[in-house]
Amino acid sequence: MKPVSLSFAEFRSCHLLLGIALAVCFDRISSTTNEIDRLALLAFQAGISEDPFGVFSSWNDSIGFCQWYGVICGRRHQRVTVLDLRSQGLFGSISPHIGNLSFLREMRLQNNSFNQEIPPQLGQLRRLRILKLTSNLLVGKIPRNISGCSDLVLLWLGKNELTGEIPRELGSLLKLQEFALHGNNLTGSMPSFIGNLSSLEVLFLSENNLSGSIPQVLGHLKNLQFIGFAANGVSGTIPSSLLNLSSLTQFDAANNQIQGTLPASIGLKLPDLANFSIFRNQLQGPIPPSISNCTKLNTLQLGQNKFSGKVPSLENLCNLSWLQIHGNQLGSGEPEDLNFLCSLTNNNKLMYAGINGNKFGGVLPICVGNLSSTLMAVNIGKNQISGKIPEEIGNFINLEVLHMNLNKLLGVIPSNLGNKTVMEPVSSSRDDSCPNVSYGTLLKATDGFSSTNLIDAGSFGLVYRGVLEVTGTTVAVKVLHLVCHSALKSFNVECEALKNIKHRNLLKILTVCSEYAMGCEVSREGDVYSYSILLLEMFIGLSPTDNTFRDNLTLHGFVAKALPEQVLEITDSALLQERESHLGPYN
Asked: Helix, strand, or coil here: 406?
């Protein structure tokens, strides 16, 4: 076969044709892959049943999908790289087709009402770096194949209804910096694989059902800044290596079953510690004097443990705004027990001091008048404090609440307390602390739970503004989504927190209007029953919580006993009067 020679002009012509052919080929490939992204987005949209803000109004063929709301594409290939639809009130499920967005780097869907399970197809997103699904209604287990997203830096799945154990496969996410699973129903122990996540800076596992001990390997996380595993069932001791991490700024292990003591050198190892919360555990021993070396401390919560002995000087804690050491065995009933209060006079940021429920004795030192003028609440109740209340306590110009009950104080309350609220023992009867408010009352107060009175919305419920008809009191009415299993748990945690905090910007809980189906799974039958109770309440003019109903007598039983002969005797007189005004007394 003879070789064929090409002229320079023919050679250039061939190159031109080849270039055109390749360009056409790439254009077709690009169109095909872009169509995959468009179809994946449309499938995602199809899974949304409620779009209150109309964010999907732009998701149509009038513009390219890269201009759709919440969608960002890369400049080079025009492929979807970001899907950001956070806080849009969306209700629906996450389509498994989302796994076809192969160039996706960020998915931000937090603070909506996405339900059903997390699609395992998310594990196909190899380029994904940020996954935020916090504050939704997601159920089921955490997909194991999320481990396929090997570039993940942020994984936020908190405040959902996820169950099961934390998959050990996630231990391969070596680039992970923030790992948040708080506010779910996860079980099992705190996994030891977390110790392999060497880049981890934030670990947030609070408000789950985790048990077992704290893994020693957490002390290997040299970059860890925030660790929170409060409100679980964790037991054992706190590994000393964990409290040696100089990078720590936040440590929250409150409301567990942790035992042991705090290391004597804790304040020497944690120079950047800002928040330290271990209240409601079973820790014992003294409060280490070295704690005063944590000069950046803003919050110190050691309450409801078994700490004993003398409270050390806190003179170096100039940034402390929240001191909570109540419910321990601190002090010995001796005069010098309260000397530590004088060590706080250099602090000008303290807002709350709770030392109640201990064994502090002696008199209140005059130096308390030199404590920060920013103090808003002080609780020294249930101790062995004696003597007079020093007049200097009136120097707290911002003080709103002062608890001094259950001590051995003498004399009179200083007149210069002015408008302060001095808390002495008060009645805890239901009439004082929990007024009867019916569902009908709340219905009127909120104008039928009108959307115009809606002031907040979240995964666990809605908050409405209302005005009580009888008193004219403005109230906030929180309606829980009982279909969300974590709603009641979240509300209980909220109540527990508010029980221990008083602040001008925090609303006091007045009462709870319980629906009859609260203890059951939500169902059609439950809704019908609750509605019938509401009708009976309107018919007889009494709420289910009225004092009439006691000793196992319920509203339903009360009406049943009156049937059929005594119906008029239990009917609300206002209804009978209205009937007579329309029909006359003899009809």
From this structure: coil
